[in-house]
Structure formats: structure tokens, C-alpha cells
Amino acid sequence: MRIAALDIGTSSTRALLFEDARYTGRHASVEYALISEEAGAAELDPMQVMNAVVECIARLAQSAPGPIESVALSSAMHSLIAVDAQGAPLMRALTWADNRADTAAQELKSRPDAQAIYAATGVPLHPMSPLPKLRWLQEARPEVFRSADKFVSIMEFVCHRLFGVWQADDAIASASGLHNLAARDWDEAALRAAGVERARLSQPVRPGTVLTGLKRAYADSMGVAPATPFVLCGSDGCLANLGAGALAGGQARRAVLTIGTSGAFRMTVAKPATDARMRSFCYALGPDQFVIGGATNGGGLPLRWLRDNFPQLLTGTQAADPYNALAQIAAQANPGAGGLLFHPYLAGERAPLWNAEARGSFIGLNFRHGPPQLVRAVMEGILFNLSMILSVLEELGGPCDEILAGGGFARSDFWLQMAADLFGRPLIVADNPETTAQGAALMALTALRRCADLPAAVALLQPATRRIEPDLNAHKTYARLQPIYAAIPATLAPFYAQLTCFQREIP
Fold first, then answer.
1. Can you tell me the distance from the alpha carbon of 260 to that of 287, in angstroms, rounded to the nearest whole number?
2. Percentage of the chain surpassing pLDDT 90?
3. pLDDT value at residue 46
């Protein structure tokens, strides 16, 4: 079966072509701007995303050797859009990176039922999720909140445009903070806390739900048949675990590391699991499959910040791709970047801090540091932060036997070696680093009954043959820096709120 796996991300939408479980190498992508017109804002134009979806599938259909036979849908988590009765957006889409609901999140944390809401939904009370965003919307844009017919994610918005239905699969719904993991339905206590009624949300459905009856105009624009089945596969992070073959019940305890726009460490478990200190998340993946972990805002975004704001860094480099060019620059510095540390909190932080007011910083800067050290410190800082998340997961679930690497960073040999060195253990890299799209293709094969269940779909994957061993000398350097790196955010925490206040008053 020829499957177009669609990944609706925060900075771009991508479509990748699969023949059953095999990635063909054919792909299309369209970038769009993350809009930030005030402090803490991180929004997307819903129609721009919708147009990107159509364009990506159209490009892929043009390059495919035959008709697209199904489309596997996945998207980033935690987005929120208010729409009217016709489904037209009343606002831009709030993304996971939007921190303006921080005060609302703090108020929710102070509620007597805060721990119970987290335990039921698996989502930390943080401005990333739609629950605090809805509370913020009531106060900041009351006219939008009152006039909204529904509150939906970007995935639901796209599907309504294509098929005219309001449905939210469990994986997307469980990232909203409004969904009960055990009941696989909207959580009444969370709805009351958000101030919304069930009728203003989409119908919850299971991952693998198949949509048919694509509107003719979109079918023509995409170059696919109106009868083409579209499968609701779930969220990017959970599908990355599936695409890496990391299901619960396997012989090895596997942690999956992904770095794309954001970054995360995740493990798959057989039943919902939450942390008494609310340090981790738990989202639905499929029947008897849930994903626990921690996601960081500082994945690839800090590198994109370097690319967009300091183009002079790239002058004279040989690589055509700007990210490869940045890696070439970083390779000129030694591990540890000469003692320069970077904390990637440019958009606040989720795990491990859960502090939307956190701010990025270079620590240890001196006259000996130049572009190589600065770029390397940014790349290392992203990994140091992820190492803190891994420590939390191992504290909760025990040591992981293997780290599987995926996401955009897995295309960089330099960054992969850096990760192995910093974590001090081997990294296993799938032949296809596009683990989210791979997971979506596997979910679609199961939904369309080409496979009996998810374990049978995972069995189609070719075993990863690439194993990157750590350089122990480099690891010793990183091990000395790790406790210093981890201690700095706690030291700076009292100043984050003051800086946030200043930035809002004086942009």
C-alpha cells in the first residue's frame, strides 16, 4: 500500500511516502512562520498550515510512482484554536511554545484537585497544554471565548476542512489536559477547571480511526482520489516511539530520543503511569500502549534561532544545508565548548523545569570563545537538558537498556556522536530516522487491516543496524560539566520571573 505519512509540525508540515512499512525516500515539506507579536506568544496561522497540508500531499502525489492509496495523519501536540459554527478560525493557533497561560497554569496548580486532574489526564499543569490556554483565553480574549462554537487542535481543524467532521483521536486529545486516560474520554473535572462544556469539543475517537469522503475540491488540489482513506494516527511524539519499534512488553527497556523542532525522551508502558511530583507526562498511543516522558521546548528551535538571526556564521562554510553548516562550525571546538554552557530556554521550558518563565543563557563566556564554541555550546546545551529529562525517567522507570535516536537530528552524524558521548552510552539509529512518519505508516497499516495489531506492524520494521559508541574521554568531560549545567537553572530561577516581567513591559 502506498501511504503518504503527513506530519503537521510547529515550524513545517512534511509528507513522506511509504510502500507499506518501507520509507521510499520521497518527501515534500513546506515551512511556515511561528508568529510572536508579544512576549510569550507562539502562534500559527491555521489557514497557512492548511495550505501547507494540501501543498505537501500534492507535491508527494506528483512525485509518487503511482496513486496515493492512503494518508496517515499526525501532528504536534497541545495546539488550540477557537472556531465558529462553520469551522472558521476566530484566532491564530496557539502552539505548545506559547507561554501566555503561565498565570492560569499557576492558578490551576494551586487548586485542591490539581494532583487529581494531573493523575487522570497525565498532562502537567503547564501553559503548553490547552487546559491553561482555555483559562487564559477567557481572561485575555473573552469575546473570542464567548463566540467560539468549538475549541480544537490543528489536527482537528485540518480534518474538519477536509471531511466536515469534528473528531479528536485519543493521542491528540490526551495531550490537551482535558482527557481521562483510563476512560478514554473527556474528563469532567478537567472540563470544569477549563470552563468548557463537552459540546464545545470534538468527539473523542481511537487512534486508527479512518476518515473517508474527502471533499472533491481538496481531492483535486492534492491529486488524490476522493475515496482515499485518511487515518487519524495520533501525535508526533507518541508515534515516534511506535516508529522506533519501542512498544510496551518488549524484552529491552527502551528510551526513545527525538529532536525535531522540540525534543523529548520517552518510554512506552502498558498502562497509564503518572508521577507524584508531576515531572513527567503520559499520553495515549494505542490499545494497551501509553507513552511516558518529558519534552523540552529547546530542541531544534535554538539552532533555527542561530540560523535566522546570525546568518554571518554561515559565511564561508561549504555545506548547502544551514544545519550541516552549523555542525561544521561546532566541530571546530572541543567537547565541552571550552567551558561555555548554553541553556536552551528561549521559549520557556517544559521538562525538566516546567517553568514557562525560564530564559535562555550562555554561562562561562570569555574572550577565548568564538563562533565554534558558541555553536557547539548551543548543540551541547540541548543535549545536556535532555540528559536531565532522561535522569527523571530512569528514576521513575529504572535504567533504560537502549537509547533509540530519531527525528531530524538523526540525520547529523556529528550531533549523533555528540549525543552518544554526552549520555555515555550507545545510540541505536534506525535506518529511517523519520520515526514519527514511520509510526504513522504503521498505525495506518493496522487501521486499514494490513496488519493484525501494532506489534505485528512493528515486526515489519528492519532491525536497526547502526550503533554509535560513545567516546569515553569526551564523556568524562561532559560528566564533569553535567552537574554544573543542572545546578544553574535552580540558581537563576528567582530572576526568571523578573526578566519576564521586564520583557513584557519593555519589549
1. 26
2. 79
3. 98
How many whole angstroms separate alpha carbon 447 and alpha carbon 445? 6
List, for residues 392-428, the tens digit of each pLDDT value: 888 877 788 889 998 788 889 999 999 999 999 999 9
CA nearest to 49, candidates 101, 15, 98, 13: 13
pLDDT of residue 251: 63
- pLDDT in the model for residue 252: 67
pTM as predicted:
0.84
Where do the structural domains in the chain lie, given as residue ranges? 2-243
Please give the C-alpha separations between residue 442 and each of 22, 73, 274, 427, in angstroms, as whole numbers: 10, 11, 27, 23
Q: What is the largest CA-CA distance in the chain?
A: 63
SS3 14: strand
Bond from prior residue into 352 cis (ω within 30 degrees of 0) = yes
Q: Between β-strands 341-343 and 361-363, what pairing exists: parallel, antiparallel or unpaired?
A: antiparallel
**What CA–CA distance (Å, rounded) separates 317 from 72?**
38
The pLDDT value recorded for residue 297 is 87
Give buried/exposed letters for 65-96 (b at 16+ CB in 10 A, else e).
eeebbbbbbbbbbbbbbbbeeebebbbbbbbb
Amino acid of residue 385 = N
CATH T-level assignment (fold) for domain 2-243: Nucleotidyltransferase; domain 5 (3.30.420)
Q: State residue 430 phi and psi, 5-degree precision.
A: -65, 150
Going by C-alpha positions, the residue among 428, 434, 445, 341 that lies closest to residue 388 is 341
Strands 254-259 and 81-83 turn out to be: unpaired
Could you tell me the three cell numbers for 83? 472556531
Q: What is the pLDDT of residues 132-160, one digit of tens each?
A: 999 999 999 999 999 999 999 999 999 99
Q: Is 202 in a helix, a strand, or coil?
A: coil
Query: Taking the alpha carbons of 163, 166, 171, 176 in that order, is the dihedral positive or negative?
Result: positive
CA distance linking residue 47 with residue 400, whole number of Å: 41
**3-state DSSP assignment of residue 430:** coil
- By the 10 Å C-beta count (0-12 exposed, 13-18 middle, 19+ buried), 446 is classed as buried
Q: Is residue 213 classed as helix, strand or coil in its secondary structure?
A: coil
Q: Which residues pair with 44 in a beta bridge?
A: 93
